[in-house]
Amino acid sequence: MLNKIKKQFNKKTNFEQWPGIIKGYKKWLPINKNTPIITLQEGATPLIELESINQIIGRNVKVYAKYDGLNPTGSFKDRGMTMAISKAKEEGCKAVICASTGNTSASAAAYAKKGGMKSFVLIPDGYVAQGKLAQALVYGAEVLAIKGNFDTALEIVQRLANEFPITLVNSVNPYRLEGQKTAAFEIIDSLGEAPDYLCIPMGNAGNISAYWMGFNEYLTEGISKKLPNMVGVQATGSAPLVFGKIIKHPETIATAIRIGNPVNKEKANIVKKESKGTFLDVTDEEIIKAYQLLGKQEGIFCEPASAASVAGLLKIKEKISNNATIVCVLTGNGLKDPDCAIDNNEAIFKQGIEPNFEEIAKSMGF
Ligand code: F0G
Known about the structure:
By secondary structure, the protein is α/β, with parallel strands linked by helices. Helix content is 43%, strand content 14%. It is built from 16 helices and ten strands. The longest helix is centred in the middle third of the chain and has 15 residues, at 206-220. It is globular and about 65 Å long. Ligand F0G is lined by residues 75, 77, 100-104, 171, 201-207, 256-257, 303, 305-306, 331-332.
């Protein structure tokens, strides 16, 4: 159990807090005594039971959300970035670069600064949620918004990192996936066993590959006894892995996964095959429905890309076996994308009310 690990750690060091994924899962990560640990104490995120979804599916299934939007910069990227930046620091690197739909850039900027490095981020102009852009600016990245999409930005940063002394921290950097696999460890540490299904949004398909690595490592060590079916979910307008072809002009409200040519596609296809998994697409309407359901029924505010995991589960609910345990990965925090929240809710929001006790009580129905 995660709590047991935390307790053991605390005993040894008298350290009262979760130390972040590198110290927390040291033995499983490619670090050595010379690796400087650059951390914002990421990881140890909640695994929350989603009772409303249990009820929708029925048949005694148990659905949980791995709420990775509660990481220090509000997304799962922090798990990978603590590793990528720590290794970059170990190798003496002075600057890092990434292409991003927003979350990678926020995380890279934060961890680079924590490690005393410069960061450059290339983003698709006009297609990055406000909160993410705000983060990259506040953490002091050099932000280059290009007139092109994520796929073009990634091609450019790969070339820049090849030709100049700058480290690439996109998920082609192997340390990213090493860090991200710790989310799978945490799920097993909490549940005592791997779930039967893991539903996860796919963009560049790094995270699904990282989870698969984590589940397999725990199985090999005998900590768990089974592997989940991996359910990878993409937005219909941006679903190259579902349709098996490059999408030249990807479109979706879930800008985090607006990617038409995923760099980890071979890895993702192996995960699908090995796990006897499923890749499926969900429409923007289905994403927003799941997004609203999580907010209204569960008190969980995630970003639209994250809600795709729940939308995907609801789409295949008839195929889920009885008594199954399912984990949906909520990859990013809802605060990242306030525009989406304000444009897509059914809340009661009365404006222009006089600051008058009687008026307010009356408008409340008293
Ligand atoms: N969910 C969120 C919130 C993301 O930001 C991303 C990817 C994904 C899911 C998909 O993860 O790429 O590993 O399959 N965001 C990247 C970025 C592309 O630049 O922030 P993946």
